[in-house]
Amino acid sequence: MAKSNEFISVLDQGYIRLVNVMGSDLTVANAARVSYDKESFELDEKDEKLIRFLAREGHTSPFRHATLQFEVYAPLMVARQWWKYVVGSDHTMDAWNESSRRYVTEEPTFYIPDNDEWRSKPANSKQGSGEPIDYSDGKHFTGALMRYVDDGLAMYEKAIEQGIAPEQARLFLPAYGMYVRWYWTASLQSVAHFVNQRLAHDAQAEIQAYAKAVNALAVEHFPVSIEELTKHAKG
């Protein structure tokens, strides 16, 4: 694998870092051609045409021979949505390792939407968001969330100070907005599937922001494959 240190900031304190990359667009083309005992050594127009054909016709196995590894720092609500694409995916070569507050006692960090970032409930949809709410109402909810986080942190720190095990003390932490860190290793096909699903118009805005970052990092290394596999997500 080729080591990478490409990094994109997301939300207020989150990020995605591309740690490792195995393969390229040429890997995909050669994986498809092995059935005919053929191999290319430099990507050309024929290879690009082949990749477009594979993506268009749904021949996805060649895209599983390339792999990307990301380090992600995101709110727990994003992590748990993301996790569905590991446990529920039929794509091979997915792995997930997450930090645990059973062992890590670093200072907790939380996602706090700004006053103008609160969204209304959509009128006729079971998921997603509506229009932004009034700024003054947003200011109220931002303040309330900050107070809630402060209270939880105070109780968490008090429990730690009084000898409660971290694995139980963490119960006091407001969970869904707390940032967690994990490594996600996935095939190129799996990465494209995640991007397609989480760039959809009804996806939660916060995870859309991470999907855009994943796409931006992946397309630098697999420009033809990502473009073809994610066309409908951009339309």
UniProtKB/TrEMBL annotation:
<dbReference type="GO" id="GO:0004799">
    <property type="term" value="F:thymidylate synthase activity"/>
</dbReference>
<dbReference type="GO" id="GO:0006231">
    <property type="term" value="P:dTMP biosynthetic process"/>
</dbReference>
<dbReference type="InterPro" id="IPR036098">
    <property type="entry name" value="Thymidylate_synthase_ThyX_sf"/>
</dbReference>
<protein>
    <recommendedName>
        <fullName>FAD-dependent thymidylate synthase</fullName>
        <ecNumber>2.1.1.148</ecNumber>
    </recommendedName>
</protein>
<dbReference type="GO" id="GO:0050660">
    <property type="term" value="F:flavin adenine dinucleotide binding"/>
</dbReference>
<dbReference type="InterPro" id="IPR003669">
    <property type="entry name" value="Thymidylate_synthase_ThyX"/>
</dbReference>
<dbReference type="GO" id="GO:0050797">
    <property type="term" value="F:thymidylate synthase (FAD) activity"/>
</dbReference>
<dbReference type="Pfam" id="PF02511">
    <property type="entry name" value="Thy1"/>
</dbReference>
<dbReference type="GO" id="GO:0070402">
    <property type="term" value="F:NADPH binding"/>
</dbReference>
